[in-house]
Amino acid sequence: MLKYMKIEIPYSKGYKHLTIKDNRVRGVLNSWVEEYRTPGSQQEIIRCALENPIGSPLLNDLSGGAKRVLLITSDHTRPVPSKITLPILLEEIRVRNPEVEIKILISTGFHRATTYKEMTDKFGTEIVEREQIINHDCRDKENMVFKGILPSGGELWLNSLVDWADLVVSEGFIEPHFFAGFSGGRKSILPGIAAEKTVLANHCSKFIASMDARTGKLLENPIHKDMLFAAEKAKLMFILNVVLDSQKKIINAFAGHYIKAHEMGCEFVRNLASVEAVEADIVITSNGGYPLDQNIYQAVKGMTAAEVCVRKGGAIIMVAACNDGHGGEEFYRWFAKASSPEEVAERISAIQQNETIADQWEAQILARILMKSRVIMVSDECSRKYIQDMHMTYASSLEQALELAEEGTGENADIVVIPDGVGVIVK
Fold first, then answer.
1. Catalytic-residue membership of 17
2. Residue 298 and residue 192: Cα distance in Å, rounded?
3. Which pTM does this prediction carry?
4. Three-state secondary structure call for residue 200
5. I need a surface site. Which of 22, 68, 80, 389 has the fewest CB within 10 A?
C-alpha cells in the first residue's frame, strides 16, 4: 500500500502544502534550530547576552563616557526582531548616560530605503517617533567618508556617521549566507553602510566565483576578509546578533566584540544548520517565508541550497511570494536582455573588479544555478512575465510546479525537500 507524505513549505507569512508519494522522497533537510531550546523569554535571552559580552566590556560601560552613539540596525528585508532588541539596546546605552545623543542608522546596503510604514512595523511606532532614524543611501556620495583600501584592492567608503560617533554599535542576526559565509557581525558595515563603489568592488565576479565564497565558509573567504577590514575601519565596538527559529523567534543571542562574538554565533549556527547533501532530480525549497521571500533577488539565496542537491538537468522548485517583484532593475535586465543563462555568466565573468555593475553578483549566482538545472518559481503574488523573462518557469501552486518538473524528469523522479533553503548549510 502506497504511503504519502505531506510537506509544508514557508511562503510569505504562511505556508504552501503538497502531498507526494513517500517512496519518492530521498530526504527532508532541516536545520536543528527547531529542536534547540533556550530557557527564558526572548527579552531574557537578549539581556543575558548583554550581561555576558564575549571579548568586550559591558555595553553600558562602553557608552558611559560617550557623547554620540551610532546604532546600526537592519532594514526591512531582514527578520531581526528589532521591536524586542532595540528598546533593550537603547536602555543599555542610556542607563549610565541618559543625555547621550543616539542616531539609528538603517543599514540598507544596496537595497532601497526602508519606508515609514516598514519602520513602524519593524521598530514599533514609539521608537520611530522618538528616536533619530536615518536610512543609509549607498549612492549619496556627499555623506561618505574614505576609510582606506580594502584587502581586495577596492576603495572603502562608509557612511560619514561613523566619524560623527565616538561609539559604533550594531545589531543583526546570524544565519548561513550564500557567499559571505554567514550573515551578521561585520556585514552591518559592509555592505550595510558602505558606498555603492565599495559594495561593487567587494561583490566582484572573481570573488563570487571563488569556492571559498560559499555558504557557511569564513576561512579564506575573500568577501569576508573585506568585510572584517571595513568593520575595523568603522571602529565597530560592540554587536548584538541573534539566532532565530522558523517562526522568527529568538533562540540565542551573542553580544560583544564584533569578531569574537560573531564567530561564536557562527559556530553555534554551523552546529545546528549543517546537513549532508542528498542528490535528487527534483529539489523543493524556499527562502523561509517573509521577509526574505519578498522578491526574486532574495530568492536566489534559497536556491543555492537546492543547487548543491539537484542533479544536473534536474529541476529546482522555489517557493517564494516575490510580492515586491524582481527586487532590482539591473538584476532583472541581466536576464531579460540575454538569450540564455550562459550568456549572462559569460558577460559577467569578463567584468573586472573596478568595473563591477550593480546586482551582477546575484545575476551571476542565478545564472550558475540555471546552467545546472531548471528553476520553477511558485508564486501567486509575482508577475509571471518577470519570472519568464529571467529564464525561469512560472507556477501558481506547488502541485502545478511538480507537474511541470516531472515533464523533464519523469513522474517518478526522486525528490529532496529543503523547507528553508537559507537556514541550512548543505555539505
1. no
2. 16
3. 0.89
4. helix
5. 22
54 CB-near residues (< 8 Å, 6+ apart): 254, 255, 256, 257, 260, 261, 264
Produce one character per residue of 86-104: b if its CB has 16 or more CB atoms within 10 Å, e if not: bbbbbebbeebbeebebbb
Q: Report CA 289 to chain centroid distance, whole Å.
A: 12
Angstrom distances, CA of residue 345 to CA of 45, 299, 339, 351: 44, 18, 11, 10
Q: Active site residue: 76, 111, 257, 326, which one?
A: 111
User: Which residue do the cell numbers 551610532 mark?
Assistant: 70
pLDDT at 96 over 90: yes
Q: Which amino acid is at 338?
A: A
Residue 117: burial class (beta carbons within 10 Å; 0-12, 13-18, 19+):
exposed
Q: Are strands 132-135 and 374-378 parallel, antiparallel or unpaired?
A: unpaired
Q: Which residue has the cell 507556477?
A: 395
d(CA 410, CA 113): 45
Catalytic site residue 111? yes
- Averaged pLDDT score across all residues of the chain: 96
What are the tens digits of pLDDT across the range 322-359?
Answer: 999 999 899 999 999 999 999 999 999 999 998 999 89
Dist CA 238 CA 59 (whole Å) = 7
Q: Characterize the bridge pairing of strands 374-378 and 310-319.
A: parallel
DSSP state, residue 194 = B
Per-residue confidence at 37, pLDDT binned at 50, 70, 90?
A: confident
What domains are defined for the chain?
4-29+278-426 (3.90.226.30), 42-272 (3.40.50.11440)
Gap between the Cα atoms of 128 and 134, Å rounded: 10
Q: Is 270 left (phi over 0), alpha (psi -120 to 50) or beta?
A: alpha
Spot the catalytic one: 76, 136, 177, 391: 177
